Input
Amino acid sequence: MLTQVFFNPVLGGNVVVYQHLFWFYSHPAVYIMVLPAFGLVSEILPVHSRKPLFGYTTMVFSIMGIVVLGLVVWAHHMFTSGTPPWMRLFFTIATSFIAVPTGIKFFNWVATLWGGKISINSAILFSCGFIINFVFGGITGVALAQVPFDIHVHDTYFVVAHFHYIVYGGTVFIIFSSIYHWFPKVTGKMLGEKLGILHFAITFIGFNLCFAPQHWLGLNGMPRRVAEYDPQFQFVNQISTIGALLMAISTIPFLINIFLSIRSGKNSGDNPWNALTPEWLTSSPPPVENWEGEAPLVEEPYGYGNSFTTKNKKI
Amino acid sequence: MLNKNIYLILIISFVFSISFWIGFNVNLLPAEASINAPIYDELFKILLIIGLIIFIGMTIAVIYSLFKFRRRKDQIGDGIALEGNFSLEIVWTIIPSIIVLIIGLYSYNIYDRMGGMQELNHSHEMMSSNTEKIWAGISQSSNNDIANNNLSVEVSAMQFAFLFNYPKGEFISGELHVPVNHKVSMRMESKDVIHAFWVPEFRIKQDIIPGQPTILNFTPTKVGKYPIICAELCGPYHGGMRASIIVEEESDYKDWFNTNNKAEVDL
Output
């Protein structure tokens, strides 16, 4: 391995080919981080807003669209390396178009909320926080896909901010939302809502305080991957640090919540959310192999709404 | 029904006006000090306004839903059993597609105006007589008023410094001095790993790649001292890899050049 020559210019190799190799794998890899979160939020929103998932079919096709387009966008990480102009045009358009299937998903999620009977709890708050953060991260993503825009902010804190709006504001928010949603199924105990909402509030404020100012830092000349910065960036970096501290503090109510719940939490029963998907039809926690006897047949796993459960005529 | 439409129109005009107001009045960018900078800022402004409209609109929709459709204490039923709406799906597929397509083509126009689409190997003939391949870069066609007045500089980057070689004066400098309103053509080469040349006030950046010479052309428009920042992680002291570009009046530049000049000819 030490003597390979493919990427070594002294021996006639090409260093940029290594960047292509890296990003050809690593760009689809960031979709691996976020696509499961998209699936989770599609499960959580209908349960807590008591409505079917809006546009299930387009949701599935838009995931396919993201997967296919995700394969042909890697060179948008390399707009300042040696990529020829025609290649940049192709990757700009391909990357911008990922916003279309992703946008469909977000419009559908908001439409799922619209007209529901939304229980304001920790799970739905984290999911809605995710929508707001991810829309912001998606908008900066489309901006970064534009070659001339990227030439200024490439490898700066702007990219750091964009990335964290997607991966922390997106994926991590949904991981928390999922924990509040499925913890009762896993343990048979409810998590406390007051501590959960406190956890959400501190996380949301801390997260935005930490990463929103970094857009400004990047635009104004702070490169990423540095341990030192210019004095004029001190104040904004300090704001960012306070946000990071708040994010660390926000895990304290979360951990206390889990500890209290396991020690003396309210029993959740099998189906605390009145959900229709199959996992809620078994006991909490589920037995070995999930079901006592045969698994039930579920025909309408997302069949929420008044026509299915005609208990309340008021909409 | 009429009432509802009036509220919708009010909210939409509020979102648009606040987005346009922020777009035109809030400056998030550093000083504009090159020909490229105002072109870049034009694109930035348009992307900011479109982005704000979408972001504020979506945020209002989410917060309004959470407030308006929240479950009240006495309610036990479900929401409406609405599983989708095909025409809405078509609308929010086609409108974003058109928007991103227009943004993509517009940004390409901006990129062309910044010089990104120029043929690299032709615009560079002044630098060297041999037919060396230029791999990448940003080149600018010579503007009429500043034609034939290119300043050529050869940049070498290494861990952790930039060196600027002025071929006309046969000397090497650690600071880049350039006269204002003159086109500067730089040929850049790395001695070890990948570095990048970035001047935030000029809105330009180009990687400096070992084994693949790149070029970067720009025209400074404002006298002053600006940082040159290495923007590609190049080793443990990457954060300290800085240099300065000093844009001066032509007479000041000539004085500086002549005090350093080691060639026999005068500038």
Residues 123-130, 142-147 of chain B have pLDDT under 50 and may be disordered. Chain B touches chain A through 75 residues (CB under 8 Å). Residues 136-260 of chain B form a domain with the Immunoglobulin-like fold (CATH 2.60.40.420). Chain B has four helices and eleven strands.
